[in-house]
């Protein structure tokens, strides 16, 4: 895919959604960090349902740490892998309190040193909370990058590297959100809505899906 196509793709995405953001509900960098940690292999919808009950009760490192693992589990037990996530959240809170004065760090290295926080989670926090131009490659972005020809790669690291290189600088800050939303609602895994995609003429996916037959 050439530079002109890439620029046009992001120009269209921006016109459609000028100010994209995460669908996770949060009010502070700490809430975002916890929500993203909980969202691994889970939907944003399921995480939001849990945190709507949790955050009014505990939304600081001290308050969540005070709950302990057993006290946290009832709030998040509807989310997949909740026991492991509860342990990671409590230990993350402890480290934030003891090593970071209860403030979410602004460096990738410090974020990735927290339990349950990998590169993708760190990228989301850096981008969404602190305005750093990063791209967190999840299943949606990996699929869109490969299917469209925008940034093909065999693994998430290659796709991230190519996106960081090829996304025009003016779009880089918001590219993460645009690509996730496009993959979540249009360029879906099993039946992409090519017939209703504003990028169809720019996309290099050859097996485009036609308009479904009317029932």
Descriptive report:
α2 packs antiparallel against α7 (119-130), α4 runs antiparallel to α5 (82-99) and α8 (139-148) crosses α9 (156-166). This protein is an all-alpha fold. The two termini are 37 Å apart. The model has no long low-confidence stretch (mean pLDDT 95). The chain has helices spanning 3-16, 29-38, 44-54, 61-76, 82-99, 108-112, 119-130, 139-148, 156-166, 172-185. It is elongated, with a radius of gyration of 19 Å.
Helix-strand layout with pairing:
Layout: H1 3-16, H2 29-38, H3 44-54, H4 61-76, H5 82-99, H6 108-112, H7 119-130, H8 139-148, H9 156-166, H10 172-185
Helix pairs in contact: 2-7, 4-5, 8-9, 8-10
Keywords for this entry:
215 residues, mainly alpha, 56% helix
Short description:
This protein has 215 residues and is mostly helical. It has helices spanning 3-16, 29-38, 44-54, 61-76, 82-99, 108-112, 119-130, 139-148, 156-166, 172-185.
